[in-house]
């Protein structure tokens, strides 16, 4: 039986770095120009491009903005087709800061989509702070919530739902939705967004 362990699967940081370099060269930008636009040192951007360091999500977001692309494009070459499954250990999900969210509201992305079209995004959301007003979200596809801990009022259109551990809620993502009152913290729930296939 043939050994397959010697096949090199590029690490996530290598994959992201090569995409950043490719886009930068395609746009005719120098490392210095992109670094300045992203508020980074040239040395740091160079390390990210070569895959010798893994940038945090905030840094990747700034680089994506500097290149004029969405952040998901930076992950487009990360291919896990060599593996049949993607295993993200407890606490190892990438922390994502969504528009309008601040401290006390943490999103951890539990799987990374492959290819240019995302089919779904699973998040583990933790909320501990009730001092801020949470924004309203709208996006394509269907969203499914599953409560793990705490009690949360969740707004969906004109309706409000009080979610307790074990409760599930699913809805059309185009309907304005978002957290309301944090009735009992800490709150932890899964949010899975399933995107429509292109052409639908």
Question: How would you describe this structure to a colleague?
Answer:
- One of its GO terms (cellular component) is cytosol.
- Keywords: DNA-binding.
- This is XRE family transcriptional regulator.
- With 200 residues, the chain is an alpha+beta fold.
- It has two domains: 12-74, 434 Repressor (Amino-terminal Domain); 94-194, Jelly Rolls.
- Helix content is 24%, strand content 30%.
- It is built from five helices and seven strands; from the N terminus they run αααααβββββββ.
- It has helices at 12-26, 31-38, 42-50, 57-67, 71-74; strands spanning 94-96, 105-109, 120-127, 142-156, 159-163, 168-172, 177-194.
- Strands 1, 2, 3, 4, 5, 6 and 7 form a seven-stranded antiparallel sheet that branches.
- A hairpin with a 2-residue loop joins strand 4 (142-156) and strand 5.
- Helix 2 (31-38) crosses helix 3 (42-50).
- The longest helix is centred in the first third of the chain and has 15 residues, at 12-26.
- It is elongated, with a radius of gyration of 19 Å.
- Residues 1-9 and 98-103 have low confidence and may be disordered.
Number of domains: 2
Largest sheet: 7 strands, antiparallel
Q: Mind telling me the CATH superfamily name of the largest domain?
A: Jelly Rolls
The unreliable regions are 1-9, 98-103
What is the first-to-last residue Cα distance?
43 Å
| Helix count from the secondary structure assignment | 5
Q: What is the chains' assembly state?
A: single chain
Give the percentage of residues in beta strands: 25-35%
**Secondary-structure-derived class:** alpha+beta
- Fraction of residues in helices? 10-25%
């Amino acid at each position: 039986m043939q050994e397959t362990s010697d096949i090199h699967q590029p690490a996530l940081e290598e994959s992201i770095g090569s995409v950043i370099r490719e886009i930068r060269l395609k746009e005719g930008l120098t490392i210095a120009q992109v670094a300045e636009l992203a508020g980074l040192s040239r040395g740091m951007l160079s390390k990210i491009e070569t895959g010798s360091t893994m940038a945090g999500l905030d840094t990747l977001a700034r680089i994506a903005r500097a290149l004029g692309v969405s952040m998901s494009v930076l992950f487009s070459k990360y291919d896990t087709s060599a593996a049949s499954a993607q295993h993200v250990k407890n606490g190892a999900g990438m922390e994502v800061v969504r528009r309008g969210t601040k401290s006390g509201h943490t999103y951890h992305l539990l799987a990374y989509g492959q290819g240019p079209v995302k089919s779904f995004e699973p998040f583990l959301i933790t909320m501990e702070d009730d001092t801020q007003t949470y924004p309203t979200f709208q996006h394509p596809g269907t969203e499914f919530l599953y409560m793990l801990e705490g009690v949360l009022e969740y707004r969906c259109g004109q309706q409000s739902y009080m979610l307790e551990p074990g409760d599930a809620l699913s809805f059309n993502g185009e309907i304005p939705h978002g957290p309301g009152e944090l009735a009992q913290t800490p709150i932890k729930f899964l949010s899975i967004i399933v995107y429509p296939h292109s052409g639908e």
